[in-house]
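Retro notes, structure queue

What went well: the backlog is down to a handful. What didn't: a couple of records were mislabeled last round, so from now on we paste the full input next to the output in the thread. Example, using Inner membrane-spanning protein YciB from Thalassococcus profundi:
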Amino acid sequence: MTEKTINPTLKTALELGPVIAFFVAYLWLKDDTFTIGGTEYDGFILVTAGFVPLMIAATGVLWWLTGTLNRMQVLTVVLVTVFGGLSVWLNDERFFKMKPTMIYLLFAAILGAGLLRGQSYLRTVMSGLMPLQDEGWMLLTKRLAAFFFGLAVLNEVIWRTMSTEAWVYFKTFGLTAAIFVFFMTQTGLFKKYAVEDKG
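Corresponding output:
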């Protein structure tokens, strides 16, 4: 299916809106406890229960408007549903906190599997955005696979050793900033291995 063009602001709102809503709702309800069906749930679990359907709905609307979703978006919504659902069902916030670990380990494993086959799966996804020579794609893929593995380890360290509030800040802002900084530090690689336009 051909991707349809939509307003960039709307696209960003659909992609980031659920995460921002989760953060705001958590700050609002973090100190509260709710009794539902005789079971006590803290604010984090209640916010997670609202985040899962919101994420599914936003992704569904994005697919309806654009006609397509990339693999990362599909994988993310599946893992949000699985781990968020487990957290709510078992009333255990640890499952939702593990979600970024699983996402980044899976990304690292997929990129690593491609490298073992002498291929850059990253190129398949991003070649239209950044025309690079083969050597550049392989080097960027190695660096990104290692970076994703590092993020998985960092997420584990933070949620296991710090407060839930600290983890929410890390998840909302730290991971996003880390990915931005990573690509900014690859400027030299992009320049060195850029494919020159011969047109």
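Agreed that this is the format going forward. Reviewer comment attached to the example: DSSP finds eight helices and two strands in the chain.
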